[in-house]
Design a protein that fits this description.
Layout: E1 13-15, H1 22-30, E2 39-43, E3 51-57, E4 60-66, H2 77-86, E5 94-98, E6 103-107, H3 114-120, H4 123-151, H5 161-177, H6 184-194, H7 198-202, E7 206-209, E8 218-221, E9 224-227, E10 234-237, H8 238-246, H9 255-268, H10 276-300, H11 310-324, H12 329-339
Antiparallel strand pairs: 1-2, 2-3, 3-4, 4-6, 5-6, 7-10, 8-9
Length: 341
């Protein structure tokens, strides 16, 4: 998401200079805009391997996204947008996609993410947006896999034991090893302990999940909430998406509001309530992955602002462990030690 802007050059609107970026030239010609009257606004500090450019002509604007070859899922973003929209889930419209130049043009929904609303909007509007979002999440979970099957769409591989194990190992490597410099024996013990999260999540019924359902990937636009950054969507447990949404380290929802949103979700699921133990298991799984990502981005990718999200994520993990009495003593100990500093 282009929400994270943290340098003096990011976000500045400047006249576009033709012939400096062939892929951008080609994309802009598809818009039938006069290039010499077009301005651009580049976003680079976003925690993504993709680049985002807002192109502006008079009162019109679009988002131009370019992506590399390292992640195959990125080429699916435009087609997934069309798929979800056809199923009644708001997304930006896909206006153009050139797989050869790995460039796409998407509808510009603006910058009013749920993260932005939470920190800068009115409480009333923020709550309205979150309620709309949970309704769309429930709808995607209820109907998404049938829609995928009907449209014969290829998704990323489903959440399985290998992917859960990879996320757990990512946390151990980036946080326990690279950040805390814990011993090799402790790292091995932590990996074994975290493996206990896998079986309960694998036993859950599978739905179509977004996989990165945080507040920066939901945009308030025209009185509704649209999803973005869903290129990694796949089959998996609903609890993973709910953990991402309700325990997002970028915002701090109250316990009462989380409960309200879960009740709203259940009403859309014929009254089926998510088991608290499973939700807390998913909170630990999801936020361990997120902490690993924050460590990598802040320490290896030159984006230190992501380090500020580590503490709230660890606090939510600790709360989930305590709430459901999860048997994770090693994880609990290293979190307690880190938070007490």
């Amino acid at each position: 998401s282009p929400h994270f802007i943290n340098t003096s050059v990011d976000g500045i609107v400047v006249p576009y200079e033709p012939k400096r970026d062939k892929a951008l030239d080609t994309a802009l010609r598809k818009l039938d805009w006069p290039i010499d009257q077009t301005s651009i606004q580049r976003f680079t500090r976003n925690g993504s391997s993709r680049s985002f450019t807002r192109a502006i002509f008079k009162n019109q604007s679009v988002m131009i996204i370019t992506y590399g070859t390292e992640r195959k899922e990125n080429e699916c973003y435009a087609s997934h947008a069309t798929l979800l929209s056809s199923g009644g889930i708001p997304t930006p419209k896909s206006l153009y996609h050139n797989r050869k130049t790995r460039t796409m043009i998407m509808q510009d929904l603006g910058i009013r993410t749920l993260h932005h609303l939470f920190h800068h909007g009115s409480p009333k509007q923020t709550k309205t947006a979150y309620r709309r979002a949970i309704s769309h999440i429930a709808h995607m979970h209820s109907t998404g896999l049938n829609l995928v099957k009907r449209k014969n769409v290829r998704l990323e591989p489903a959440f399985d034991k290998a992917l859960f194990t990879w996320e757990q190992g990512f946390f151990v490597e980036k946080f326990a090893a690279n950040t805390l410099h814990e011993s090799a024996p402790l790292q091995r013990s932590l990996r074994k302990e975290l493996a206990s999260l896998t079986d309960p999540l694998l036993a859950c019924p599978t739905v179509l999940i977004h996989r990165d359902l945080q507040s920066t990937n939901l945009i308030w636009h025209s009185g509704d909430v649209a999803m973005i950054d869903f290129q990694g969507m796949r089959s998996g447990p609903a609890a993973y998406d709910l953990a991402s949404f309700l325990y997002d380290p970028y915002v701090k929802l109250t316990h009462a509001f989380r409960h309200e949103l879960l009740q709203r979700y259940a009403r859309h699921q014929d009254g089926r309530i998510i088991d608290v133990f499973l939700l807390d298991t998913a909170v630990v799984q999801r936020l361990c992955q997120a902490v690993g990502a924050y460590c990598r981005l802040s320490q290896e990718a030159g984006q230190p602002e992501f380090a500020t999200h580590i503490t709230p994520a660890l606090q939510s993990i600790r709360a989930a462990i305590r709430r459901s009495r999860l048997d994770l003593p090693i994880l609990q100990t290293i979190i307690e030690s880190h938070l007490s500093k």
